[in-house]
Amino acid sequence: MWDFLVEQAAPFMAAAARRYGREVLVGDGSRAVPDDRESAGRRLLQLVFGSGGAGPDVPPLVAGLIEDPGSRQMLAGLAAYADEVLESDPGKAAKAAGVIAGFYRGQAAAGRVEALVDLGDLLYWDDPQAARAAFQEAVDAGHVPALLGLANVLDAVIGDQDAAVEVYQQAVSSGDPDVAAEAMYELALHTRYQDEGAARALLGQVIATGHPQWAAAAMVGLARLHDGDPAAMEALYRRAVAAGSDDWSGHAAIALAGLLKRRGDMAGAAAALRPLIATGSTAWASHAREPRVGWSCVPQSGQPAPRRGRRRRAAGRLPGRRSAR
Length: 325
Prior knowledge:
Elements (H helix, E strand, L loop, with lengths): L4 H16 L16 H13 L10 H8 L4 H17 L1 H20 L4 H10 L4 H13 L5 H13 L2 H12 L4 H15 L4 H14 L4 H12 L4 H14 L4 H16 L2 H14 L2 H7 L37
């Protein structure tokens, strides 16, 4: 219940720690609905840790975030604990979701239409009809990117395929190049099992847009539809790597490494992964370390290179939806 709640709550909690410091857990019942991120974050922290503590009584996890509210490590530790608490107490989880939803509704009422999209994202899995209503309200208010959230929730959660396709097509025709490129990509994923030819054509159209993110995503997707043609797959993965997308070029590099490793080209696989190592990203490192991907083909500091011929089968997949939900 309430998937990804803590992911949404974490920035609020960090904002509260930054503003209130060691008074963050002191109760404040002056507002029924928090009207800013800091107040909402304060309420969330009090749900997780209780209220009333101040000064030396602040729990260590909260104190660490107060000392360094910009620390990803501190925030990750606090978020992990909050996840355990909310997972074990559905009542608290529902209250926390209510705090965030109330904040977004207040922001929307004040004229910030994008808050309706944030609300839709919050409700996406746990109350999809309410999420649909939030996305639709944003669309009706003229916020074109909300078409993507509306189509996705119709497609992936509610299961109204015809309505989803209609909204995707509306997004393709929206005139917004970012929205249109993403919508064509999503529509290709939607149709790939029913009509692979149509999916290939759509992905080709996305590539032709040259969009900095979605063209690379389409190259990765089209490569997977060329399964059985290693040369075509390699060419597409290399194009996606060269595209320089913050997200999809990394996916392409990992897929390329797996493809080359299956072929027995350990040096090529290692070369494909080195740019990811150079980024210093722990997220990419964790993906690349999966044995099926092929991190083992890259010698680590102080370690000998693996022997040639030691292979593991690399598993590939067509990329999923944008929010990774």
